[in-house]
């Protein structure tokens, strides 16, 4: 279909989003997009979520940390922010979502808010609460394996 | 703005991890409100220096009925800066709202909990803050979420009517569940709050901590009666 003349095209705002999860989480782009849609629909309802028209444009996720660009219609940024706040898990992996910034173009937003991945994560054995445990550390933040789950800690919590 | 968190062993992140996340998200501090049985035992000064956010030592008294809650109250009041009592039944809510020593009545609408004009007025009279808990709005879905929203709305109407002091929190149990102040504000607006009300509720934790720290300091004798600059140590 021929695309619309410029003055009729919708105006967009781009939300630059940081994603965090436990190190064993596997959050695919498709699942993240589904979670965003569901969150928006559950919070805002069909009508408003269709208006906000949230779409994940670019997505990167690796070893418990990721970034995404989410598009929203101009004037619906606040709704989009609220919906993204309600994304608490993707499938069964709990995720932390944070809007790092909002931009009028993808490029400016990416330059300004994304690409700040912390240094590479490393697996190591640590002593936590008087017991040895496997852990994944990154930038002073350590996710320790405890009883099959994880505990979020920092370097200073270890012994 | 402050967030009230539950750290390990009840939650899934340590106090330091919460502090690190809070600093990144733009909070001024975290209020650690574990129950007495799951005390995380942390060094507030060290955490404050390492992460450049305030850490408030709080506790939450959780009991089935007023009798069970009143027992540990004085000890909890002595030991912690901020004292919260978990509501959740009309009786508990009323007990907490009428107790001067209590700072915050948490989760008043959870479970079978309900708040009416009597409780709201009592909370305002006794300077007990009621908590708007956004946790279920953030993380539940379907029926439980609808109930949480209904509870928040009722509570909001009573708070406005009787000018009850209040706090707001997303009550995270891990650093992944923390949401930045702007996100909470946007969520609040989406469910009918004023953006300013959410901000005030998040900031109220800090006001509360500040007030209690002053009261617990050695210079404080009684409201309006303090050791001043003209007194010397004897």
TrEMBL record, chain A:
Gene Ontology cellular component annotations, sorted alphabetically: cytoplasm; ribonuclease P complex
Keyword Cytoplasm applies: yes
EC numbers: 3.1.26.5
Xref: SUPFAM superfamilies: Rnp2-like
InterPro entries membership: Pop5/Rpp14/Rnp2-like, Rnp2-like_sf
Any one of the GO BP annotations: tRNA 5'-leader removal
Function as written in the Swiss-Prot or TrEMBL entry: Part of ribonuclease P, a protein complex that generates mature tRNA molecules by cleaving their 5'-ends.
Family, per entry: Belongs to the eukaryotic/archaeal RNase P protein component 2 family.
Name of this chain's protein: Ribonuclease P protein component 2
Gene: rnp2
UniProtKB/TrEMBL annotation, chain B:
One cellular component term from this protein's GO annotations in UniProt: cytoplasm
Subunit structure: Consists of a catalytic RNA component and at least 4-5 protein subunits.
EC id: 3.1.26.5
GO molecular function annotation: ribonuclease P activity
Catalytic activity reported: Endonucleolytic cleavage of RNA, removing 5'-extranucleotides from tRNA precursor
Record keywords: Cytoplasm, Endonuclease, Hydrolase, Nuclease, tRNA processing
Name by which UniProt lists this protein: Ribonuclease P protein component 3
Top enzyme category: hydrolase
Task of the protein: Part of ribonuclease P, a protein complex that generates mature tRNA molecules by cleaving their 5'-ends.
Keyword Hydrolase: yes
Main location per the UniProt record: cytoplasm
Species annotation: Halarchaeum nitratireducens
């Amino acid at each position: 279909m021929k695309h619309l003349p410029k003055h009729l095209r919708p105006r967009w705002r781009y939300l630059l989003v940081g994603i965090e999860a436990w190190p064993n989480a596997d959050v695919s782009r498709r699942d993240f997009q589904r979670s965003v849609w569901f969150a928006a629909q559950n919070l805002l309802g069909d009508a408003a979520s269709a208006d906000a028209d949230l779409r994940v444009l670019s997505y990167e996720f690796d070893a418990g940390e990721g970034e995404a660009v989410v598009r929203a219609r101009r004037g619906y940024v606040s709704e989009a922010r609220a919906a993204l706040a309600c994304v608490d898990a993707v499938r069964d992996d709990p995720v932390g979502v944070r809007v790092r910034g909002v931009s009028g173009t993808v490029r400016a937003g990416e330059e300004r808010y994304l690409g700040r991945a912390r240094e590479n994560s490393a697996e190591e054995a640590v002593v936590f609460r008087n017991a040895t445990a496997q852990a994944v550390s990154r930038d002073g933040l350590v996710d320790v394996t405890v009883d099959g789950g994880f505990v979020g800690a920092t370097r200073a919590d270890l012994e | 703005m402050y967030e009230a968190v539950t750290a390990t062993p009840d939650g899934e992140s340590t106090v330091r991890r919460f502090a690190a996340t809070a600093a990144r998200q733009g909070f001024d501090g975290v209020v650690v409100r574990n129950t007495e049985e799951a005390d995380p035992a942390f060094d507030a000064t060290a955490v404050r220096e390492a992460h450049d956010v305030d850490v408030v030592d709080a506790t939450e008294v959780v009991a089935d009925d007023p009798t069970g809650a009143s027992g540990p109250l004085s000890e909890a009041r002595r030991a912690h800066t901020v004292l919260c009592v978990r509501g959740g039944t009309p009786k508990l809510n009323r007990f907490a709202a009428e107790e001067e020593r209590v700072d915050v009545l948490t989760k008043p609408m959870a479970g079978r909990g309900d708040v009416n004009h009597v409780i709201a007025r009592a909370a305002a009279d006794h300077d007990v803050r009621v908590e708007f808990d956004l946790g279920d709005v953030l993380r539940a879905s379907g029926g439980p979420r609808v109930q949480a929203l209904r509870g928040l709305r009722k509570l909001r109407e009573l708070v406005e009517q009787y000018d009850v002091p209040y706090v707001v929190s997303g009550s995270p149990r891990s650093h992944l569940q923390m949401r930045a102040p702007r996100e909470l504000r946007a969520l609040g607006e989406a469910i009918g709050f004023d953006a300013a009300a959410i901000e005030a509720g998040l900031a109220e934790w800090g006001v509360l901590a500040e007030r209690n720290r002053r009261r617990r300091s050695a210079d404080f004798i009684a409201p309006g009666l303090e050791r001043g600059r003209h007194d010397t140590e004897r």
